[in-house]
Amino acid sequence: IDNLIHQLITFKRSNDQRTIMNNIKELSKKYKFEVGRKSMKILANILHGTADTHLIQVTLETLITLVIHDITTDKEQLDLPQDILVELTGRISL
After folding, report:
1. Exposed, middle or buried by CB within 10 Å (0-12, 13-18, 19+), for 18?
2. What is residue 90's predicted lDDT score, i.e. its pLDDT?
3. Residues 12 and 54 sit within 8 Å (Cβ to Cβ)
4. Angle made by CA atoms 37, 40, 42, in degrees to the nearest 5
5. pLDDT of residue 69
6. Contact, 65 vs 32, CB < 8 A?
7. CB–CB of 62/24 below 8 Å?
8. How far apart (Å, rounded) are the C-alpha atoms in residues 42 and 77?
9. CB contact set of 2 (below 8 Å; sequence gap of 6+)
10. Euclidean distance between CA atoms 44 and 10, whole angstroms
11. Is the pLDDT assigned to residue 94 strictly greater than 50?
């Protein structure tokens, strides 16, 4: 996760960023809290700093995955607090 986030920050080509963001999105399904904790501010910065509609779409999909608490699909995440939205959005300072 740390490597992907570092790459997302340092790589400037849109294709590279899209690929990295898709990988982060997939990881967010299984490692929701860790991905959210480490990437929430960066994801918000992407939304503010890019005009790439595909990158924006994948970023928004990732954010939705991070903040939705669905115990029927998040079986590995049963130990997450139900107020995960509050926990993760508290990490963003816009």
Report:
1. middle
2. 60
3. no
4. 125
5. 66
6. yes
7. yes
8. 23
9. 38
10. 16
11. no
> Structure pTM?
0.74
pLDDT for the residue numbered 88: 58
Encode pLDDT of 29-88 as tens digits: 889 888 988 998 899 999 998 899 999 999 999 999 888 866 565 555 555 555 555 555
CA-CA distance, 45 to 70, in Å (whole number)? 26
Q: Which of 93, 32, 94, 87 is nearest to 63 (CA)?
A: 32
Dist CA 62 CA 36 (whole Å): 9
The 3-state secondary structure of 36-72 reads: HHHHHHHHHHHHHHCCCHHHHHHHHHHHHHHHCCCCC
3-state secondary structure of 35: helix
Band the pLDDT of 27: cuts 50, 70, 90: very high
Which one-letter amino acid corresponds to residue 70? D
